Amino acid sequence: MRSAFARRYDQLTARMEDAWLRRARADLLVGLSGTVVELGAGTGHNLEHYPDTVERLVLTEPSAAMRDQLRTRVNEAPRSFDVEIVDATADRLPFNDGTADAIVSTLVLCSVPALGPVVAEARRVLRPGGELRLIEHVAAARGWAHRIQTRLDPVWNWIEGSCHLDHETRTALAAGGFDVSGVSEAVQRGMPPLFHRIARGVAVAP
Ligand SMILES: C[S@@+](CC[C@H](N)C(=O)[O-])C[C@H]1O[C@@H](n2cnc3c(N)ncnc32)[C@H](O)[C@@H]1O
Fold it and tell me: Would the CB of 66 count as within 6 Å of ligand 1?
């Protein structure tokens, strides 16, 4: 992600947060407990929604510009559990096998170059039955929108810095052995058509 985009991230996403995303984040994180790893935590929008039942929260984030803002947000509001910030990409997590009870990913899997290695890494780090909780914009269902996304993807990726329009996240999770029956996909009203199909819910590790 380009650092100029990172510095303006909160400003650019404010309307989306107010319209639906803040509420969706709160719903997503209900009931989490134990050791939780967040992928690409950005500026820390999920922080306020983690319940006190979490014991240890590790916020991974590869962008230095994002980590600066994340650190500020973490320091602003002390929590009852440990919070660490770690420089890492989602395909190489610095954790031992089976050590996380849950992984959280919101608007991150569009940013990874390929889903397969990230799904494999999430599976490695989660304990059996651990949860990957996600909110992600994904490829449109088949048809003209899907074809436009596929064609525009390289251009959009170059403009934005890392975001892909055509990731088939639910399919990649299922291929990686996750139970995706708790992941739904639907069009989110108010979002631009290029990324208005949102996958959300809980994928369970085998
Ligand atoms: C659209 S922002 C979302 C930030 C935050 N998760 C949220 O919900 O607001 C995408 C984030 O993914 C991070 N990112 C980009 N490539 C990544 C990768 N390969 N692995 C993990 N995170 C990545 C970016 O630095 C950025 O913070």
Answer: yes
